[in-house]
Design a protein that fits this description.
The complex is a heterodimer of chains A (170) and B (275).
Chain A: H1 2-24, H2 34-45, H3 48-65, H4 72-90, H5 96-122, H6 128-159
Helix pairs in contact in A: 1-3, 2-3, 2-4, 2-6, 3-4, 4-5, 5-6
Chain B: H1 8-29, H2 36-65, H3 74-112, E1 116-125, E2 133-136, E3 149-152, E4 155-163, E5 168-172, E6 179-184, E7 190-195, E8 201-204, E9 217-220, E10 232-241, E11 248-254, E12 263-268
Antiparallel strand pairs in B: 1-2, 1-12, 2-5, 3-4, 3-12, 4-5, 6-7, 6-9, 7-8, 8-11, 9-10, 10-11
The chains are: A mainly alpha (170), B alpha+beta (275).
């Protein structure tokens, strides 16, 4: 229960940090999408319900604060979460190369969906964004992802660490 | 249980995907008013974003102004501190003076406009290049609502796409999702001004036979009813007639320097107020 109570607050803080502090490092070019890495981490470690709700809430916050099309990130993050679950079930998802490649591919998938949506729903051609924004972003987020996933893993281990003190004699 | 346990994950996945796809399809098809949950998120995040940005700016200023003084002689330090304090004071006065000039321009603009206006401060702007939006510190409590046009003293900034009680998101003129009915002031030719991201804007659907020159002023035509007629949108920077096609390709530089906008005016029209 505490998971569902704390989750929205932590995710909103994550999104605010992403769009304010981390945005400074983007140099007006590519975004540091840590939220995407969180969704992939959830896909590798959480069950369908908990991870699905995490992706839904994270996508909702991003839609509220950064997206011009409401629902875009909700759909993308839920899709990427279940893709991550499928990948985790098929291969060993602990290798840094696999994590980096998969994160890069997910960033590209996200870009492709946005470009197609703009093309077919709004009639705007933003194909240039694939080369100019999403490929560099896929490379940067891909390189960062094994590091950040490692940090998440340490944090999770810290949270679930057993009490190793010897039992008191009676 | 109706569904076997091994299919639970599949069922949850299908429900969440269908739900999110339905929300996306609905909001992509129409411009809807901001719902309560979205308003709450925007309302909760706006002050935090504002505080973080002010802190970051303060840190940046402190770094620039004071940290390089560390390690100098006492006298030097005292003089430099005095100098920094005076510069800071001068800077604040200068900032106040510039702000006064800007507000006077906005006030003049307010007097020229037929509609009621609400002045707002820009709290945050998207620095990454895909969605071109700014966050302002006024919302439904001040009479703002989705779809209202937003101006600066330089010209049209964009329109409101999300509103909370005390904050709103403004979609800038240069976003690819922005389309405004426009006309060329000199020739009166009418078209649609569409955002083109960092490249500025494109004026579409102007016939090949129209003569368009660099430097022509582009104004809002007032046709769609969102923007009043005659607001400055930008200036034509280039026009080319391609071999095929009925229309010209016209590049337009927006009148507003979006990187420097600090205060804006939202135009409140009475039409659609009951929405």
């Amino acid at each position: 229960m505490i998971y569902y109570l704390l989750l929205p607050v932590l995710l909103l803080l994550l999104v605010i940090v992403q769009i304010t502090i981390l945005d400074l490092f983007s140099l007006g070019w590519i975004g540091m999408e840590i939220s995407l890495i969180v969704v992939i981490y959830a896909g590798f470690h959480l069950d369908a319900l908990r991870g699905g709700i995490l992706s839904l809430i994270l996508g909702f916050f991003l839609d509220c604060l950064t997206s011009a099309i409401f629902g875009l990130y909700m759909f993308l993050y839920i899709l990427i979460f279940y893709l991550s679950m499928i990948v985790e079930g098929k291969v060993y998802a602990g290798k840094p190369v696999l994590i980096a490649s998969f994160t890069g591919l997910c960033t590209l998938l996200e870009g492709l969906v946005i470009v197609l949506l703009y093309r077919f729903v709004f009639g705007a051609d933003i194909l240039y964004a694939i080369l100019k924004i999403f490929i560099p972003q896929a490379v940067v987020v891909g390189i960062l992802s094994p590091l950040i996933l490692g940090l998440f893993q340490r944090f999770e281990v810290f949270l679930h660490a057993e009490d190793r003190r010897p039992a008191r004699r009676i | 249980m109706l569904v076997p346990r091994k299919y639970h994950s599949l069922l949850v996945a299908a429900v969440l995907l269908i739900l999110s796809l339905a929300v996306l399809s609905y909001s992509a098809a129409r411009l809807s008013e901001t719902g309560f949950l979205r308003k709450t998120v925007l309302e909760a995040a706006a002050p935090v974003e504002d505080a973080v940005n002010i802190s970051l700016k303060g840190l940046h200023d402190a770094w620039k102004r004071y940290l390089f003084l560390v390690g100098l002689e006492d006298e030097n330090r005292r003089l430099r501190k005095q100098n920094a304090a005076l510069s800071d004071q001068l800077n604040r006065h200068r900032e106040g003076h510039i702000e006064g000039l800007r507000l006077r321009k906005l006030l003049n603009l307010t007097e020229d406009l037929p509609n009621r206006t609400v002045a707002a401060r820009v709290v945050d702007r998207s620095r990454t290049s895909l969605f071109k939006m700014i966050l302002i510190n006024k919302g439904t409590a001040d009479g703002l609502r989705v779809g209202l046009p937003v101006l600066s003293e330089q010209g049209v900034v964009g329109r409101i796409i999300e509103t909370a009680w005390h904050a709103s998101q403004v979609l800038l003129l240069i976003d690819e999702n922005s389309n405004i009915d426009a006309l060329i002031q000199r020739s009166r030719a009418q078209g649609i001004l569409q955002g083109a991201g960092a490249a500025g804007c494109n004026l579409k659907y102007i016939s090949r036979v129209e003569e368009v020159q660099a430097g022509d002023v582009v104004l809002s035509s007032g046709l769609a009813g969102v923007f009043p007629k005659g607001l400055l949108l930008g200036v034509v920077t280039g026009a080319s007639r391609r071999e095929e096609g009925l229309f010209q390709k016209i590049d337009v530089a927006p009148a507003v320097d979006f990187g420097k906008v600090e205060e804006v005016l939202a135009l409140i029209s009475d039409a659609g107020a009951d929405k």
